[in-house]
Amino acid sequence: MTVARAAGTRRPASARLLALLWPALLLICLIPGVLSNLFAPLSAGIAPDTGGRPLWQLTLIHLQLVLGAELIVLLIGVPLAVFVTRPGRAALMRLTETITGLGQTVPTIAILALAVPTLGLGLPPTVLGLVLYGLVPVVSNGIAGLLAVDKGVLDAARGVGMTSRQRLMRVELPLSLPVLMAGIRTSTVYNVGTATIGAALGAGGLGSLIINGLSQQNTGLVLIGAVLAGLLALSLDALLELVAPGGR
Amino acid sequence: MIELQHLEKKYVNETSGEIFYAVKDLSLVFPDGKITALLGPSGCGKTTTLRMINRLIEPTGGQILLDGQDIMAQRPEDLRRQIGYVIQQIGLFPHLSVVQNVATVPDLLGRPRAQTRERARELLELVGLEPGQFADKHPHELSGGQAQRVGVARALAADPPVLLMDEPFGALDPLARDKLQEAFLDIQRRLQKTIVLVTHDIDEALRLGDRVALLTGGELAQFGTPNDLVRHPESEFVRQFLGEDALLRQLAGLTAAQLAQPGDATGLPQISGTLNVRSALSVMLGQRSDALAVLDAHGQVQGVLTWQALEEAG
Fold first, then answer.
1. The pTM is what?
2. What domains are defined for chain B?
3. What is the pLDDT, as a whole number, of residue A50?
4. Size of interface A-B (CB pairs under 8 A)
């Protein structure tokens, strides 16, 4: 029936295991020397030079970039999904879905290239790209979640005397939360990858390892950046699944 | 007391300009402390009428008075918090526990939490659900009948004088419906609420309603006690709608114990006092006996059900 009921079973133990495993692996890889020694054979025997910055620092910058962008995505995306799903705004909702759908077909690199002339290099164009990209799953899942709330439940909420605001806060948002959270997970994981491109604009983060590695033809360096970004994405995914609501 | 005065709800088709009346010039008084059934075929306007009483639908004409006050004078949310509302799909909030569901309206009214919880547990007991067992369950863990009981408890939580019920027993299987109707009548005998009950089920209307308002095409066909409608149908429509077996339907709403009289029961076929009178009639025909011995819950004879008593009741 409703989405919340679909999540009626208890979270499997494997989810909790993964939420421990991936962050633990990530932390191990951040110990100085672990990755550079592992990939030394790919860098002509010399441990790859990560440009003087410790890996944990690059990872932290990357994480801040992703989470900061995600925060902006939530601040825009959730109110937008709520706004267009209010009664009498069906046309606006379809328009929003079309635009967000279109947004996903435009390559990030194009968005970044278009943003640079106006916003310059560095953080601003990167954050813009991450936000635009991250909005798509949050808005579309937000809309889907709100539309899936059982009509009988909404009628009852009105009938017991909830105001439209109380209906939203007490009934619609809690019931659509599982679907919305899935969108937030998707968008966060996407953006861990997308953020590596931001390094091309000088936003820093794990992408700078990949870009430096490519320009120095240092496969080991590229792999260090890629492995850390991958582990970061997996860790965030597993952790977000763990905090996602459900189980009721 | 709820009073409908020349109530009207019309819809205008925007493209063709055609006017459709869901409810037309409906005047009715729902007496205090009684159950009034709004009965009729689908599309007769019974649900629309019900939903206009708590302003889920706004009328296009006429007015509704609640204890003499025009319901349009208050904010719809405030009005609805004073009126219990039970719907067919039950509409329990799936993310809240049973006790939280029941406490919804008192919570909205800002009553102290501890008091509200206490009251919710009392209400669960009232509707026949053991609070210790059910309070912390979630709606998906309940059977249809249990969920509907919680729905009734939720509607009663703020102790509203008026209860609106839209096909409250419609989604249940016959056995569960029978039990719940019985429990519901029992609760009503104690609480004496003013209840408006929408149903398309003739048996339910005759069994539960102190009054029955039969609607057709948005207009009132007849309003009266179940007996009035069955015995004195005012039109061909009423007679046809209730059917030729209307008398039997009415008998089905009575139990043998209700009609049993003191008398000599020796040698008579025996029936349980909880059996409905229509079934008792069937036993009479089958056993070729014009009287039956009625037993109480302990198997003791509590009286005699005679053919004459049936004639008087039916």
1. 0.79
2. 2-252 (3.40.50.300), 256-313 (3.10.580.10)
3. 63
4. 70
